[in-house]
């Protein structure tokens, strides 16, 4: 750009401030399409497994199984689109995917085995009721966000990633434990080759867009390697129909059976907890932290998707954590990528032959790729835990017990089998069990009677950062916030007050965890077009916290605090 057309610093700042957040960025087609295909490939196996398992157990015909699968794809696609767009208060406006919950398989079959389509009518009737329950509870459920400080959210996010790693190990061995080649050296070698290729591509193409779709490229390479070994079944292409339109109540009028409804509602509550954990992780990864209205919109989309599933022939929906890991790894945060992913899922449901193309990817290949994106979720949680001051107070104990309760059912699936069915369903989900334990212990140890989440009085003033976490001793420009209101109604003050100073590196790059520093400051690896204005958070945006956790909630007693930017924050 010539000197005559150069922008002044003030004009450049205005341009940067008006650039869209990376979550709202619309990528060019050459980047949008492969990124969306990567999301489709990562969730296809988990999405199609529950309807196939349930349908096979109920003795459905091939045509009925095909209809069940088509409905699952269409409903998942519509739910995913709703999550990314936030229409009329429905959706999270984040790159979140929806699909059939695997938790529904065992409870669904427990009371309907050997009933055929009559069993499906009972399941779909219960699914309708569960979706309505989710819609009714969404406004109240949003209040849970205030109970997720870093010690809770970090532990839960870490648990989400760790608890999904066994899924990758099953995929890597072949997926079907009854198959003769399950766990064979060829399957493990294929998974290992996919993992090595993915890592090599990510390293070699670092700084380029192709590096961001390294998982997709690795899965394509792994599938090509599997071809000569007979691990790719092309028969699904010839058996798939060209067009299939899901028909409402195709399996009969839904039957309302109280016992099935009760079990399904419990599964719905578990799905809501798991989706809340995934949403917290996604908000941290994208740099747009979850607020209570975000959670409400997301749960409304989840409830509507579940209701639609009961009508068209699908099951309870949930949010898929593997796609959260994919966002963290690829650094592609645009929600419109996932919007296109949802549209592709709908198209695959209407044109089954397209879905069969994705089904060509062998499960060992998915297992090798799953190691990467499931592990990325765990890393995001560990980085969130870095803000929780685990060396002081009770936070280290809270995280320890949270991980233990969350991993019990993962390490020993029959750990709770002797408990009553509803309790076994709730505690049998490691994510839900860990989440409940973390919230309860944080309240009992940090807020009941006395104490604070991080026990900040025991931390030297120079270690306390603007967001209530800790910084290494000797860090420059320390910034200590005013007293912060506890989510449980008490007001706690951090350690000795220092002279208020602005954060040293801005609202995202200084105080937010390291993964957001990577996302925001790595100039060569940007989501934007090369000629587009770079996104810069406005002074009023910064890092947002829901409800009483907002760091500006109680700054009225500090008029000189630069982070208030001249605003009256006493109204909250």
**End-to-end CA span:** 44 Å
| Helicity range | 55-70%
Which secondary-structure class do the elements indicate? mainly alpha
In which order are the strands of the major sheet placed?
A: 1-2
Q: What's the SSE pattern?
A: HHHEHHHHHHHHHEHHHHHHHEEH
Largest sheet: 2 strands, antiparallel
Number of strands: 4
- Helix count equals 20
Strand content: under 5%
Principal-axis shape? globular
Q: For the residues shown, what is the average pLDDT?
A: 75
Residue stretches low in confidence (pLDDT < 50, at least 5 long) are 452-528, 538-572
Instruction: Give the radius of gyration.
Output: 24 Å
Note down, in words, how this protein is organized.
It is a single chain. This protein is 55% helix and 2% strand. It has 572 residues and is mainly alpha-helical. A hairpin with a 5-residue loop joins strand 3 and strand 4. Helix 5 packs across helix 11, helix 11 (258-286) runs parallel beside helix 18 (421-427) and helix 13 (321-330) packs across helix 16.
Keywords:
single chain; two-stranded antiparallel sheet; 55% helix; 572 residues; 4 strands; mainly alpha
């Amino acid at each position: 750009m010539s000197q005559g057309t150069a922008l002044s610093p003030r004009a450049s700042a205005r341009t940067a401030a008006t650039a869209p957040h990376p979550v709202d960025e619309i990528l060019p087609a050459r980047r949008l399409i492969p990124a969306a295909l990567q999301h489709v490939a990562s969730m296809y196996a988990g999405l199609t497994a529950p309807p196939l398992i349930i349908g096979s157990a109920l003795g459905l015909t091939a045509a009925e199984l095909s209809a069940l699968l088509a409905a699952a794809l269409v409903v998942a696609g519509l739910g995913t689109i709703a999550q990314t767009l936030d229409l009329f208060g429905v959706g999270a406006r984040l790159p979140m995917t929806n699909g059939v919950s695997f938790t529904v398989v065992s409870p669904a079959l427990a009371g309907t085995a050997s009933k055929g389509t009559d069993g499906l009518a009972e399941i779909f009737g219960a699914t309708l009721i569960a979706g309505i329950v989710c819609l009714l509870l969404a406004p109240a459920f949003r209040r849970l966000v205030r109970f997720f400080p870093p010690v809770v959210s970090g532990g839960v996010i870490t648990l989400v990633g760790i608890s999904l790693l066994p899924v990758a190990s099953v995929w890597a061995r072949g997926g079907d434990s009854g198959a003769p080649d399950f766990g064979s050296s060829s399957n493990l070698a294929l998974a290992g080759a996919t993992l090595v290729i993915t890592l090599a591509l990510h390293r070699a193409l670092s700084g380029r867009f192709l590096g961001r779709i390294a998982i997709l490229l690795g899965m394509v390479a792994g599938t090509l390697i599997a071809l000569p070994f007979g691990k790719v079944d092309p028969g699904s292409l010839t058996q798939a129909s060209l067009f299939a339109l899901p028909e409402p109540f195709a399996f009969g009028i839904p039957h309302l059976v109280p016992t099935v409804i009760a079990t399904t509602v419990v599964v719905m509550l578990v799905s809501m907890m798991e989706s809340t954990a995934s949403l917290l992780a996604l908000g941290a990864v994208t740099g747009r932290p979850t607020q209570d209205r975000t959670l409400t919109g997301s749960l409304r989309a989840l409830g509507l998707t579940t209701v639609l599933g009961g009508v068209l022939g699908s099951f309870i929906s949930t949010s898929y954590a593997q796609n959260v890991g994919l966002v963290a790894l690829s650094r592609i945060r645009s929600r419109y990528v996932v919007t296109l992913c949802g549209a592709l899922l709908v198209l695959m449901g209407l044109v089954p032959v397209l879905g069969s193309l994705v089904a060509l990817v062998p499960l060992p290949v998915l297992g090798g790729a799953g190691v990467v994106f499931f592990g990325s979720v765990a890393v995001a949680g560990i980085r969130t835990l870095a803000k929780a001051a685990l060396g002081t107070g009770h936070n280290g104990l809270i995280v320890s017990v949270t991980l233990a309760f969350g991993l019990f059912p993962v390490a020993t699936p029959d750990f709770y089998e002797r408990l009553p069915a509803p309790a076994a369903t709730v505690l049998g989900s490691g994510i839900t069990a860990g989440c409940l334990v973390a919230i309860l212990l944080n309240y009992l140890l940090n807020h009941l009677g006395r104490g604070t989440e991080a026990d900040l009085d025991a931390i030297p003033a120079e270690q306390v950062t603007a967001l209530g976490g800790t910084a290494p001793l000797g860090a420059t420009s320390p910034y200590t916030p005013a007293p912060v209101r506890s989510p449980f109604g008490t007001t706690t003050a951090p350690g000795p007050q220092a002279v208020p100073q602005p954060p040293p590196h801005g609202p995202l790059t200084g105080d937010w965890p390291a993964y957001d520093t990577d996302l925001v400051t790595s100039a060569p690896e940007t989501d934007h077009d090369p000629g587009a204005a770079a996104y810069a958070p406005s002074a009023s945006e910064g890092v947002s916290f829901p409800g009483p956790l907002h760091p500006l909630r109680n700054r009225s007693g500090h008029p000189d605090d630069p982070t208030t930017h001249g605003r009256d924050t006493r109204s909250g």
